[in-house]
Design goal:
Pfam families: DUF4158. This is DUF4158 domain-containing protein. With about 90 residues, the chain is mainly alpha-helical. It has a domain at about 30-90. It is about 55% helix and about 0% strand. The chain has 5 helices and no strands.
Amino acid sequence: MARTPLDLDELVEHWTLLKDEQGLVSGKRGATRLGFAVVLKFYTQYGRCPRNRAELPGEAVEFVARQVQVPASELDLYDWTGRTVEYLRA
């Protein structure tokens, strides 16, 4: 079943990084910065980490990418099986 695209209000409500979240993300770079940010926002909304990139709405990735100033395409380089993701899932 196709997912309904997120509108701007939903993006702002669920995918805007709060000030304390921005602090957590600020020490990271590139794909790790974007990956950490989208995993964090997914977790705050769903109470779990995404299993892979396919679970993340494209609009949300673009929205978060603009906030952390990392191209959304960098998420393709994020290691969904690495130590960082496993740490976040623990």
